[in-house]
Amino acid sequence: MHERSIIHLNVADFAVAVERAVDSRLRKRPVIVAPGGAARAAVYDMSDEAYQQGVRKGMLLRRALCYCRDAAVLPPHPERYEHAMTRFYKHVLPYSPLIEMTDHNGHLFIDATGTGKLFGPPPDVAWRIRKTVRADMGFDPIWSVAPNKLVAKVATRLVKPAGEYIVQTGDEEAFLRPLPLGLIPGIESQDLKRLQEFYLTYAGQVANLSLDQLSVVFGRSSRSLYDAVRGIDPSPVVAITKKQPMVKADHEFGNDTNHVPVVEATLYRLIEQAGTQLRWRRLATKRIRILLDYSDGRRTARQTAADPPTANDFRLFALAKPILKRAWTRRVRIRHLRLICDRLVYPAAQMELFPADEAKNKASDNLITALDAIRRRFGWNAIGVGRTIVS
């Protein structure tokens, strides 16, 4: 049986790295990614230069600018970061079927166990990926190779913002012993505070304690703590499942807004875009999802089932409007609105049970067909619906 070889790739300060790839003038200067329009805007991400001056994630922007007055402040663009993460993932895909994307912030785990005959030793694979990503995307990923995910993640934290680290099998506990407990993932903040009460601040100090001793203080969580400080992590690299077909439509507001008519009009235009794609592909959706990105970088999402499946704009909007209301629970302005129609199927051929419903739905479908025909011939803006007009 092969010894496990887990590669961890980490693009440090991912949002900043993406923004610098878009605008090279931002390189080698302090950058803070935070919404500028919100009264209590919090730092979404920051460059290493800003970090060295005291800026931290979640810090209020006005406080961050007191520490780093010359920083360039950019609004967050979650859609841009997701797109960059997808490209990053595609560079890794040829080397292993087991690739785990834990978030959209530049982290990837790769299980390279048993792939040596195809691609060479795991460190060579990591170097090759780093070289390709740097040439194509302008990023310089940190990488590590270790026997498990926990140790691999700690190793990349040690060499941030740039570098590489290799931990051999059997060296996990020795590698972790001199490190502060805050570097080890999986230890909850309340457990860290409790450990500090006993003057335990390093992994080696906790590793000197037996499981029974830890159980006296930490109870059920003692096992995970016992394993974490020894570098024991049997969790597998969970492969990203094949994406299901979907239709997406996005809108980024030029000026962040919380004006209800503007947001609802935008939602209807997204519905029209998605509905047109569905009808062109002769498909219907069984589920609608709405994602809202606020000015302060937070995101909310809600969804609902479409039963029966539909591709009709009017019926899609009737389903989407209530979930917009459920998702929109904050007073903070909205920066980005996304509509997703997935679980796509062929439209049902079943007839309506009641004649009145059949006549109403047929009239609605005929109207949508007429709108499609006009737009195909004269362009998208040739005709519109009144609710999309906002003064």
Task: Give me some keywords for this one.
391 residues, alpha+beta, Alpha-Beta Plaits, DNA polymerase, domain 1, Dna Ligase, domain 1, 3 domains, 15 helices, 19% strand, DNA_pol_Y-fam_little_finger, UmuC
Can you walk me through this structure?
The protein is of the alpha+beta class. The chain folds into 3 domains: 6-166, Reverse transcriptase/Diguanylate cyclase domain (Alpha-Beta Plaits), CATH 3.30.70.270; 172-228, DNA polymerase, domain 1, CATH 1.10.150.20; 246-388, DNA polymerase, Y-family, little finger domain (Dna Ligase, domain 1). Helices cover 41% and strands 19% of the residues. The chain has 15 helices and 12 strands. It has a 5-stranded mixed sheet, with helices on both faces. The chain has a 4-stranded antiparallel sheet with strand order 9-12-10-11, covered by helices on one side. The longest helix is centred in the C-terminal third of the chain and has 24 residues, at 355-378. The chain is globular, with a radius of gyration of 26 Å. The N and C termini lie far apart (68 Å). Residues 349-354 have low confidence and may be disordered. GO terms for molecular function: damaged DNA binding; DNA-directed DNA polymerase activity. It comes from Candidatus Desulfatibia vada. InterPro entries: DNA/RNA_pol_sf, DNA_pol_Y-fam_lit_finger_sf, DNA_pol_Y-fam_little_finger, DNA_polymerase-Y, Rev_trsase/Diguanyl_cyclase, UmuC.
